[in-house]
């Protein structure tokens, strides 16, 4: 375990405590929450494990060098001076992502370009030949982060964003990001100890993430590739061992996970995605209108959903949200219901008081994750009074 190093897992706004908890449970050390990121230490095996198992991480970065820069020339010289030939060959490919928060440096694209120039110039000067850029599947993907005059250079161990789990072939018009879905579920306290329903399931993302949490299945098991598999120190045997050990922790699930949608095409897509994720034995998807549905048994039900926003779908929002509240109240006693919305006005029409409101972002949209407790017995009481 000797070769520990610092890593940074990037995440979405508000998910830092969830990610820190995940890292603690996986066995990371020196965990520190930042803004949209959590830093920690571990070894190569832990880096593989973090990429496989973290539900709320978007990327896992391995910091390499930090330095101060005051001009583009400083950046160029500092990057040029680093021994890039230790990490890649002339025939390999390169991609650079940059994030910039600075008065001096304002264009992330330009920073990426300048970094690339410095690296390929070093190769050209040393070997008379330069590596190419490949934005999709490079041998080495670098992350440049500039905060005022501080520049951090990191290796991106993940490659494509970790929300791309590899199970989605089909999406509907407003699919929810997998990391956001997992974060919503973890915030809601979902742990697989009850029945689960997503009554507006779209292409099935929340259902699939819910099943993976319930069964403790690593979320990125279906991914085709991680960036670290192209690194010079890639250890395929170690990766296989890590994969085997996390699969041993998969647990049984004794409840039901169901999804409803009124759109036949959404139902087909959800079923396809569930099959791709190899979770058909745990998840049932049906064509059903939530507003005409009712709870199927007396057991506790955990409900999480992402109602249409009216951003891309034409809906009478006040009436729609009133129906959500009415359906929950009348047909779903003994249910803990959570949903996310960016339509902060429409919440007033639900007619129930949320017991929690958590601020989140769905893409660029500021949203709220709302919790409604629907207690047992409300229906019976009403019936006796009728």
From TrEMBL:
PROSITE patterns: N6_MTASE, THUMP, UPF0020. Keywords: Methyltransferase, RNA-binding, Transferase. Pfam families: RlmL_1st, THUMP, UPF0020. InterPro entries: DNA_methylase_N6_adenine_CS, RlmKL-like_Mtase, RlmKL-like_Mtase_CS, RlmL_1st, SAM-dependent_MTases_sf, THUMP_dom. Residues 46-157 form the THUMP domain. Coiled coil: none annotated. This is THUMP domain-containing protein. It comes from Autumnicola edwardsiae.
């Amino acid at each position: 375990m000797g070769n520990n190093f610092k890593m940074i897992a990037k995440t979405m706004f508000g998910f830092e405590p969830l990610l820190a908890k995940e890292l603690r449970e996986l066995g990371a050390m020196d965990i520190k929450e930042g803004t949209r990121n959590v830093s920690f230490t571990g070894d190569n095996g832990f880096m593989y494990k973090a990429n496989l198992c973290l539900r709320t991480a978007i990327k896992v970065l391995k910091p390499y060098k930090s330095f101060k820069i005051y001009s583009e020339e400083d950046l160029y010289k500092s990057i040029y001076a680093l021994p890039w030939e230790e990490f890649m060959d002339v025939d390999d490919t390169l991609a650079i992502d940059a994030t910039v928060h600075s008065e001096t440096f304002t264009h992330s694209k330009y920073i990426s370009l300048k970094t690339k120039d410095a690296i390929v110039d070093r190769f050209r000067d040393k070997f008379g030949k330069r590596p190419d850029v490949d934005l999709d599947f490079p041998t080495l993907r670098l992350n440049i982060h500039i905060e005022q005059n501080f520049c951090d250079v990191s290796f991106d161990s993940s490659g494509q964003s970790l929300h791309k789990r590899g199970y989605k072939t089909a999406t509907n018009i407003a699919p929810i990001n997998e990391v956001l879905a997992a974060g919503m579920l973890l915030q809601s306290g979902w742990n697989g100890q009850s029945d689960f329903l997503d009554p507006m399931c779209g292409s099935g993302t929340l259902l699939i993430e819910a099943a993976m949490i319930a069964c403790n299945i690593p979320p990125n098991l279906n991914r085709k590739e991680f960036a670290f598999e192209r690194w010079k120190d890639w250890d395929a045997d170690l990766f296989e061992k890590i994969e085997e050990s996390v699969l041993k922790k998969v647990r049984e699930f004794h409840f039901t996970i169901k999804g409803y949608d009124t759109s036949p095409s959404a139902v087909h897509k959800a079923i396809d995605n569930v099959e791709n994720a190899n979770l058909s034995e745990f998840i049932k998807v049906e064509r059903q209108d939530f507003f005409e549905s009712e709870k199927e048994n007396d057991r506790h039900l955990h409900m999480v959903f992402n109602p249409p926003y009216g951003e891309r779908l034409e809906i009478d929002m006040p009436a729609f949200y009133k129906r959500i509240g009415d359906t929950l109240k009348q047909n779903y006693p003994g249910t803990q219901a959570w949903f996310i919305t960016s339509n902060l006005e429409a919440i007033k029409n639900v007619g129930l008081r949320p017991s929690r409101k958590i601020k989140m972002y769905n893409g660029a949209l500021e949203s709220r994750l709302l919790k409604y407790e629907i207690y047992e017995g409300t229906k019976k009481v009403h019936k006796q009074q009728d």
